Amino acid sequence: MYKLHFSHRSSFFTLPVFLLFHPHTLPASPFPFIPLLLPHHTSSSSPPFSYRPNVCALQQVQGTKKKYFSTCRNWYKGSICGKKTLVLYECCPGYIKLEGTRGCPAVAPIDHVYGTLGLVKATTTQQYSDMSKLREEIEGKGSFTMFAPSNEAWEQVESDVRSALVSNVNIELYNALHFHMVNRRLLTKDMKNDMTVTSMYNDLGIYINHYSNGIVTVNCARIIHGNQVATNGVVHVIDRVIRGVANNIKDVLDVTDELSSFKAAALASGLMDKLDQPGHYTLFAPTDEAFDKLSPGYMERIMGDKDVTAALVNYHLLKSVQCSEAIMAGSVYETAEGSTIEIGCDGDSLTVNGIKMVLKKDIVTTNGVIHLIDRVLIPDSAKDGMELMGDSQSTFTDMVSELGLAAAMGPKTEYTLLAPVNTVMSTDQSLLRYILENHILKLKVTLSELYNGQLLETLAGKLLRVFIYRTAVCIENACMVRGSKEGSKSALHVMKSIIKPAEKTIYELLIADGRFKIFLSLMETAGLTNLLKQEGSYTIFAPTDNAFGDLTREDLALLKSDLNALRIILLYHFSNGIFINGGLEGGVTNLLKTLQGNNLQVISVNNSIHVNSVDVPDSDLMATNGVIHVVKNVLYPADLPVGRQDLLVLLKKLIKYIQIKVEKVTRVIGGDPSVTKVTRVIEGEPSLTTVTRVIEGQPTITKVTRVTDTEPIVTKVVVKGEPVITKVTRVIEGDPSFTKVTRVIEGQPSLTKVTRVIEGEPSLTTVTRVIEGQSTNTKVTRVIEGKIYYFKLVDISGVIFSPSFTITVASLQQTKRTSTKGSG
User: Fold this and answer.
1) Distance (Å, rounded) from C-alpha 439 to C-alpha 455?
2) Angstrom distances, CA of residue 506 to CA of 501, 526, 601, 638, 755
3) What is the model's pLDDT at position 297?
4) How far apart, in whole angstroms, are the C-alpha atoms of residue 485 and residue 472?
5) What is the CATH architecture assignment of 383-487?
6) Which residue ranges in the chain fall short of pLDDT 70?
7) What is the rounded CA–CA span in Å between residue 260 and residue 287?
8) Does domain 506-654 have CATH number 2.30.180.10?
9) Which CATH topology does 249-381 take?
């Protein structure tokens, strides 16, 4: 423990100051929430001094005397302006330590302002108050706030100025101290940002700023020890001596010779009028030497365009007061020009955009503060296109200069640069001009002006398409890197790859490539070739010939024989819209709806595409009507079942990355089984779908679902024999109508339930049950004599055409069921 002793009247107080090194400099505590202390903490059972009553913490920057009073609100995490800090624990204002006790349990006697100056160790200010005859005033009646410079603050004053004050103590020193006083009590909680209070010297204003990080400044002097309450006011210790302010920013520019170049630019832009008005500004003012560092002719170009001049000077102006002592780390601020700059600090130096350039800090005025800097800040809005480009586009910059294209981009010409990063630039000199001309647009187009489907004309006359995705903005096959810039007459967009303008249709690209002969043949067979040629915006996952490598000539013939199945498979490879690799959201599944109707699942990882778990070895082949991605396998929707055995065998040869679903099929069996459900029974000549009555005669029934004259594959079985029937809903013989017949017996059948029975030559819409034989039938759903194949039909009429389907009517042997009168 270090003890600081001082005398006050007849009392002797001991103010302990406990030093805590920053955790980076000492071994870690086993209890991270308890600070590591120096050996003053002797009892293992005692709490750390920091947790004892009325103890406060200060942070001191290592190697300096700068201290910051710390609370939960403004704890600076062990670093201030990039420098490590030590933590000092001492008694909070108004409390003292007693020998043999923990913490600071005793309340210090409250004193008047003069006595409080001694209590807070502002002894130089106390001494000058005595010398200037101010003591009597600040010991007497009243309510005062004194912003008392610390002893170190007085040492920073130039020796000649300090000597002049002391030599004329009754006037100059008294006035200087009066300027540090306000005729009412103000605690830091009463001090608001951009607040002006009236001093006790000539009613001059004192400019207060209360920042979000907890720092409070008074004319840019930081309060380092605040709220020391006195009987007749309060004392706040500050880190520098403050002076009266009467000039605004314009006045300072007018009288400061080294700012003449900036003043000229401010006059040309109209900014000087603004700086003559009340407000709260921060001006980073470049000196004349800073302007001398600019390239020859630059200022002539700037001054020749009033808009550019205004952009330049406004970029040096913030619409808030930022005193240097309030900057603890890098923070971004909006300028009057509209863009942002970063203000930070490195030790005692103030930085702008990460560069130490501030020559003189905190020139306080009535409407803000000025910092002098040694270089001119140039915003993007004051640059031409070539000046916008950075190191990552240096290859593109050099090539533009070598080809003389920069001459075509004069200061009054609007254009946009689409600059690829260095790593993708081609060194093929024969393609150089072609590449560059397709990366320069004839007009200035900013990022906010781009929209999906927009066409942009290049210097070479090519039209480039714009694609807007959820997480990317792309032009043809190339997507933008974040950080587009807008210059005075130009714009810059940095591209991840070289742009390849589309010149051929999808069909022409596939033909020219040579890897897609089988795919093209299948497209032609299916009547879909026009889809590859017509205008539109399609994404196609095109399987190469190798994807069909396991198929025999007979397999291909079988695939081509079922046009409906072939179209379903082919259309599953197409999606509406152009989706390039860079436009896919990485790390998640992108669902693309196909023209067939089902979704493709596309994943982009490390610039590689996988569709339905199938690799895409070659992507982004740009066509005038879409984009091609090459796949190694034929794609098939996982949730679409196959009902034909021969087609299933063929598809299993093609598609090996999924288990193809199979539609459940059972055989038609002759004999005597029990049938649970038959969809259709057809024997004879009628067309049938639904029958609402049992009819003997020649009625016409209105609905027919399907009749086929082939050997069916049926889902359930119907067996001929002698059924047992217990219930018939309707039976009609001749003309009568029976709503219910409990039993109809011919032979000895029993009907469980017959919804409809037909005798005669009707056209039938649906027959739910027709039974002949000796089986027990609960429900008959479908029985078909002949052969029929089932495949899920997909409507593709919205794509190219409407398919036609042919239904064949099977010959049907009439089934006769009669009722015996009187049988019940």
Assistant:
1) 14
2) 14, 17, 22, 26, 56
3) 81
4) 16
5) Roll (2.30)
6) 1-52, 70-78, 408, 411, 427-430, 661-824
7) 8
8) yes
9) FAS1 domain (2.30.180)
